[in-house]
Design brief:
alpha+beta, single chain, 5 helices, Lipocalin, globular, 8-stranded antiparallel barrel, 194 residues, 9 strands
Length: 194
Amino acid sequence: MIGKSALLEVIAGKNRGLLANDAQKQGILSAIAQLEDRNPTPRPIEALSLLDGDWRLLYTTSRGILGIDRFPLINLGQVYQCIRAPEAKLYNIAEVSGLPFLEGIVSVGARFRPLSERRVDVKFERSLIGLQRLINYQSPSHLIQQLESDQKFAAIDFSIENRDQQGWLDITYLDEDLRIGRGNEGSVFVLTKE
């Protein structure tokens, strides 16, 4: 039986999945599944105090997230999912870098609603793509404060009204500082609380 520390050890050095080969990916998915079987929070959607906060991505199989790193001259930096549980909101924030002074942010805001004791329906509402220095990016929490105040940005900032921009997320493991989720596109996410 693989525990939490063993999972963290096998994903260490894999750059959120970018550096994992096929054999390593299979081992990681096996370790994730074993940990999910020992989820200490059987009804994670009801555990708002555990869910709430800023979570940093440690590992994923999401082609959408990992694909950001495949653009020429762009490197994927830290990736966050910030959950504001009392308001039923979440923010996905990816820091990107490349050429000097062209560090950027890709952010998507969404609302969620519980569908079961471990699944939420996610409806994406707003996307923001811009240079960190032009939007005064300091941290995920600071960016969320700016977004919540309906601040206008010197960036590509648009509402998402397309019904196709929806999905669901199962929270399959949750404790004080580790969360595992599985999305509707088959992706797995391992995150640590900041």
